[in-house]
Amino acid sequence: MTGDVVVTPPSARSSARRRGFTLLELMVAITIVAILTGLSLAGLAAVRLRAKIDKTRMTIRKIHEIVMPQYEEYLRRRVPLTATATTRTQFALDNLDWIRRMIIRELPDTWADVRANPAAVNALPAAFRTAPVYAYASARALGPSQTHAEAECLYLIVTRGRGDPEAMQQFHATEVGDTDGDGAPEFLDAWGRPIAFIRWATGSPATPLQKPDPAAFHDPFDSLGVDSAGFALIPLIVSPGPDGTLGLALPPATGWDAQPSLVTIAGLITPAPGFVTSAADAADNLTNHDLVSP
Fold it and tell me: Is the pTM of this model over 0.85?
């Protein structure tokens, strides 16, 4: 009836007062959202990093499966007869030297071991005038720089070496580039950086694929053991990984083929190619030596 007073129950009055958030509640909610967002972003970054690592390893594996058959093929290559050898030991030394010099020329890891042009190849002994040696000389005649030379030589080996001429069909366009703009392409990792190549990584630590033990794991190309320091070597194909820095000693800029006598692999230079010059930088490297488990 008229004039009656409507009394609001206490619970209703309490609900009316709590329709909004207090400042403390709002800050707690924002903090929780920020933490969840940070965790999500960190998880996403980890997933992206893993994807790049896996992609790089796949590229390295494809290169490894092209290069290694070429390297192992020298176990079956015919060595030209040496007329000057008069003893069994000298004959073995000459054979080993020829094999190593042939490997240098057909699997170079520095431009210094590639002839300047095809005409310069004609000055080599006939046994060294092979199709890859001519093809590499044609590429060097275009004037590539020494920057990323080991990566550029790796690309040459895959595209102009003794392997399958159709091998490049398995590589995506993002796996090849010319990062220094000198006209000589390189294989790229998932970060867009050149994948390096060290044919004789004598300074590398022991890996499942390579053990620096000339007694138990002697150089298979040295069947008579005339090079007492020679041990089995596996070409190193390596990406600098997430940090972008190899932390490894690269092949000698002066090349290997300049040696006047037997190509001495172990102990040629200090630090030897593959030697870890920075453990922090080398820790995240991705290599073909990681493709198998111990």
Answer: no
